[in-house]
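Sanity check. The docking grid for 2-deoxy-2-amino glucitol-6-phosphate depends on where the pocket ends up, so I'm generating a full predicted complex first rather than guessing from homology. Inputs follow.
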Amino acid sequence: MCGIVGFVGREEAAPILLEGLSRLEYRGYDSAGLAIWGAQDGLQVVKAKGRLQVLSDLTQGGATLHGSIGLGHTRWATHGEPSDVNSHPQVSERGRFAVVHNGIVENYMEIREFLQNQGITFVSQTDTEVVAQLLDYLYEGDLLDAVAKMLHRIRGAYAFGIICADCPDKLVAVRKDSPLILGHGEGFQMLASDVTAVIKYTREVTYLDNDELAVVTPDGVQVYDAYLQPVEKEQHHVDWEISAAEKGGYEHFMAKEIMEQPEAFRKTVFPRIRDGQVALDDLHFEKDYLEQLDKIYIIACGSSYHVGMVAKYNFEKLLRKPVEVALASEFRYSEPIVTGHTLALVISQSGETIDTLTAMREAKRLGARALAIVNVVGSTIAREADDVLYTWAGPEIAVATTKAYSTQMAVTYLIALYFAQMMGTISPEEYAAIVSELLLIPTKLETILAQSQDIQYYASLYFNHPSIFFIGRNIDYAVGMEGSLKLKEISYIHSEAYAAGELKHGTISLIEPGTLVVALASCRAVFEKEMSNVVEVKSRGADVIALTTEDLAGETAKTVDHTIAIPTTHPMLLPSLDVVPLQLFAYYVALQRGCDIDKPRNLAKSVTVE
Ligand code: AGP
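Predicted complex below; grid placement will be based on this.
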């Protein structure tokens, strides 16, 4: 999704903005631009379709633009194709306002027509140009007044950075449903879509809330609410190192993040286990509340949804409560059955996914209590949920999630154990067995990662296959969904995940000699059934890679072409181990195909439009 950076201080702004934008590249974009105001040159705007490097070349790394106040933007096209003219900043016809925007202005068409009837000419197809033109139309010498009037006229989701050539000592930042943070330094202030863009310059940040507006000058920031009443905001200190958002010698962020999983799992789980007990100090659930739950609704998108699919099996088993897993984008529009006894478990790496955020708001409106599992500290979902458990995965830069998925999964185990113990639905023996296995997962992950060359070999055999199936039963099926998504998003190979028993109800017609089927066969309880399905595809000519546990590997080897064996663990925890070979397989296949692994085409890291 679009990335915004703003700087106001005493140094040249353009190089700082380019550096900030480079930190936001991971979000996904197709064009980039800068607007700088300087005393000599006034408002200077340079923008270009393509990678940030194009913009950097055009401006000689920012050296051709002079001024210490400015805005930068990476655009992920929504309204209008990726092109120079549709790139941001968008500038008003009179050249007074430059605007960068993340989000969608839903009523932009009617405003555009209104402004055209006033004689204003538009040059782009964007909803953002409407905002720049509207600001200029409404401006009567008072910047804040114009911004407030503009905000009353537009509908939608947005984060804006605004620069006005008449007030060149300040930037205005506004947000509603799209993220925006402020960074504070000595003699300079910044604004950005996320912390990674400012961390090189400052660790002191403020998270803007919905409908807040900030006036940003070199010496400070004043935040206002929607009625232009001043708001006192708390500053936060960011404590992760900038190296956490760098490749550290790896060719891709994805490779680094796959390798970081043992450590991320440790950081997420170990401090929350004390004396063999799951200690979730941030949660305050009562036994009565849990016993009266009518349903747990898990709400998420993409890989986070796949975590929810696994959690459903584990929660239902341990808690004996009905669990429904909803795609967040469907939830709001499906008249969900939610009561005051429903717990909404919301899962999101970014904490900003608009579908998940709006679904959580709807669940809360209907009476649910929202418990969120989030990676990005201070994100909107984290702040709006009733309870939050952070995954301590650190910044995840690759678009394809790996360590966030793994740590989200880890948190669902902790919740399941914590609730089950409180409700008395788990025996002390089983509880102790799961907890002790949980503590072994990082070492077992390291064992799997140490064998990545085997998976690289399988990738070299199959990277040219046009279509790959993942089959499994029970939680193996849920993990197969994640394996399939990983492969699709970074290698562009068509892939489907199928419940193995469902194949023969239609999809098996697609299996022909040479089709690759990755069969997840790690659940002992359904192993024989799964192997029957493997035989079905084998006998139709499929090549099969089985993913199973060490103790079952001898069995699969009799039937399949290749076996990947993971260490054994408690059945509930298998997904944490199963997923890693699938991540590696997707990674190596994409590498063989020469794909842009960290920034796959058409995708964005944080999806802030519906
Ligand atoms: C996963 O690799 C994807 N990039 C995507 O499916 C992602 O999980 C989804 O967009 C949800 O994001 P969130 O966890 O930040 O809400």
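Relevant for the grid: Residues 346 and 360 are 7 Å apart (CA to CA).
Also worth noting: Residues 301-304, 348-350, 353, 356, 399-401, 489, 606-607 surround 2-deoxy-2-amino glucitol-6-phosphate (CB under 6 Å).
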